[in-house]
Amino acid sequence: MMNCCEKCFKDIEIKALIKKQKKGNCDFCGSKNTYVSDVSECLEIKENFERLIDVYSSESSRPEAFPKEKMDLLKNILAYKWNIFNLQPDAIYRFLTTLLPERYMEQPEIFDNPVGIFEEINDDYLGEYSILGKYQWEDFVTEIKEKNRFHTNIINKDVLSKVLQASFKVYKKGTIFYRARTCQDERGYTKNEMWAPPPQMASSGRANPEGISCLYLADSIDTTLHEIRAGIYDYVTVGRFVLQKDIEVVNLADIDKISPFKDLDISLIAANIPHLIKIGQNIAKPLRRYDSSLDYLPTQYICDYIKSEGFSGIEYKSTMLNAGTNYAIFNEKLFKCTKTEVYEVQSLNYGYQSVLK
Question: Which domain, by its residues, includes 300?
Answer without folding.
Answer: 168-344
